[in-house]
């Protein structure tokens, strides 16, 4: 069934009728009659009122010959439509579909007009000037984007240098090696100097009792034998009941673990190398699932201190337990703390990580700042991803994406648990420091791409 278009003189339009060709010859005749029945007026330029040659479509939708538009631009020096005076955006391009249609329907006329245009030097100069204008406009935009890219590249290079300097300082300072003995050496083998070092790490208030421990030359074995009565009597004379309870609470932890419990990031990494690497990447990829994992399997040691740090209690804590950070973080959270934590957990999980890192600024100055910046960048990336789902009307796919994400995290965690014992320690250290110091720098570039090109899919 072939469609033949006939001109309706009464209606002023095209009438489509169905014709069944008896053989190939009549089919070719119907095709030739179709092209001849279409008027050239339907494909005429509104400037020269002749057939379109290299038709160019403007933003408003009007079509003009390429050379007519060039002549108009050269004479008026305006980026606006010659007919409706609406300004066009960017640089007008040739409408390829319309050009191919005019070439097929009016081949002879278009061929003749192109020859006339090429023979006219004035039109050739106008077309050349118009094309140069378009090239300069594209080059200016490219340089503008390149300038922004150079700026952000410089920022990333500067941050990378800072990260390298922090890493070199961390390795060269030997802070980890200084405390590595206490978190790996049994308490019974501690020297008097190591006992004093352990006491100093309990807090500034512990400095008051440093001299009695040094004078009595208390080693690890004597430390394990100390009780409430011994600390109250001479020569220790710790009359403050809160101080005694704090020391005894930390001493109970030491007795239970056999070594000094980690008290900062580097000690925690040295004592739990695989767990620290797992938590670092898991909190970055899926903070909600990671916190739920800590709630189920590491409640007292990690989850409770994390919750008390991010959502501190509004009510005043009893003075008897105020001095001990361990006793403070072992209290059951109030309903206000749970409510605050759940709101942040559902809406802003990365803010919880930033607040926890903020509490460690005095201990890890630069490292905490890298973690805070990374948490802010990850929050922006998560917001951009949700905004794309909302604007693209694909919010209904969110449950399916969440299920896929859950399955992906579980499979990756299981694979990590199986492969962790076979990974060299050097590789694990490289991955740990890369995620800690260089991941924020990469996320800065991702955020810039998201803000400049919102349609780009996030990684």
Automatic annotation (TrEMBL):
InterPro entries per the UniProt record, alphabetical: SAM, SAM/pointed_sf, Znf_RING, Znf_RING/FYVE/PHD, Znf_RING_CS
Main location as per UniProt: endoplasmic reticulum
Lineage: Eukaryota, Metazoa, Chordata, Craniata, Vertebrata
Superkingdom in the source lineage: Eukaryota
Residue intervals of the SAM domain: 190-257
GO terms assigned for molecular function: ubiquitin protein ligase activity; zinc ion binding
This protein's name: Bifunctional apoptosis regulator
Function field: Membrane-bound E3 ubiquitin ligase that plays a role in several processes including apoptosis regulation or reticulum endoplasmic stress. Has anti-apoptotic activity, both for apoptosis triggered via death-receptors and via mitochondrial factors. Contributes to the dynamic control of IRE1/ERN1 signaling during ER stress by inducing BAX inhibitor 1/TMBIM6 proteasomal degradation. Promotes the activation of TGF-beta signaling by mediating the 'Lys-63'-linked ubiquitination of TGFBR1 which is critical to activate the pathway.
Domain RING-type, first and last residues per copy: 45-85
CDD domains xrefs: RING-HC_BAR, SAM_BAR
Organism encoding this protein: Echeneis naucrates
Transmembrane segments: 149-172, 370-393, 414-436
BP term (GO), one: proteasome-mediated ubiquitin-dependent protein catabolic process
């Amino acid at each position: 069934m072939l469609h033949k278009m006939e001109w309706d003189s009464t209606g002023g339009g095209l009438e489509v009728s169905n014709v069944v060709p008896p053989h190939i010859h009549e089919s070719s005749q119907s095709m030739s009659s179709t092209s001849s029945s279409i008027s050239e007026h339907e494909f005429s330029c509104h400037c020269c009122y002749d057939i379109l040659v290299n038709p160019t479509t403007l933003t408003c939708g009007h079509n003009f010959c390429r050379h007519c538009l060039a002549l108009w631009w050269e004479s008026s020096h305006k980026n606006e439509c010659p007919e409706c005076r609406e300004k066009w955006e960017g640089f007008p391009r040739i409408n390829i579909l319309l050009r191919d249609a005019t070439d097929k329907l009016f081949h002879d006329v278009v061929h003749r007009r192109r020859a006339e245009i090429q023979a006219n030097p004035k039109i050739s100069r106008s077309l050349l000037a118009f094309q140069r204008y378009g090239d300069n406009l594209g080059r200016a935009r490219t340089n503008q984007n390149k300038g922004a890219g150079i700026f952000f590249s410089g920022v990333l290079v500067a941050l990378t240098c800072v990260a390298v300097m922090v890493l070199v300082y961390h390795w060269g300072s030997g802070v980890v090696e200084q405390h590595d003995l206490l978190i790996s050496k049994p308490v019974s083998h501690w020297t008097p100097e190591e006992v004093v070092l352990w006491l100093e790490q309990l807090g500034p208030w512990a400095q008051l009792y440093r001299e009695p421990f040094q004078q009595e030359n208390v080693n690890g074995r004597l430390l394990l034998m100390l009780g409430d009565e011994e600390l109250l009597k001479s020569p220790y004379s710790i009359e403050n009941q809160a101080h005694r309870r704090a020391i005894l609470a930390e001493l109970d932890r030491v007795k239970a673990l056999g070594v000094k419990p980690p008290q900062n990031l580097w000690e925690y990494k040295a004592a739990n190398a695989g767990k620290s690497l797992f938590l670092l990447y898991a909190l970055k990829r899926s903070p909600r699932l990671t916190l739920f994992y800590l709630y189920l399997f590491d409640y007292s040691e990690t989850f409770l201190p994390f919750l008390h740090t991010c959502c501190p209690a509004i009510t005043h804590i009893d003075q008897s337990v105020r001095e001990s950070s361990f006793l403070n973080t072992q209290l059951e959270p109030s309903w206000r703390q749970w409510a605050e934590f759940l709101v942040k957990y559902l809406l802003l999980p990365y803010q919880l990580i930033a607040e926890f890192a903020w509490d460690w600024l005095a201990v890890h100055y630069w490292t905490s700042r890298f973690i805070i910046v990374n948490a802010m960048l990850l929050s922006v990336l998560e917001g951009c991803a949700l905004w794309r789902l909302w604007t693209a009307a694909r919010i209904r796919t969110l449950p399916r994406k969440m299920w896929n994400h859950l399955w992906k995290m579980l499979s990756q965690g299981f694979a990590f648990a199986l492969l962790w014992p076979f990974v060299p320690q050097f590789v694990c250290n490289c991955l740990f420091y890369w995620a800690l110091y260089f991941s924020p720098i990469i996320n800065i570039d991702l955020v810039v791409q998201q803000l400049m090109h919102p349609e780009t899919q996030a990684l």
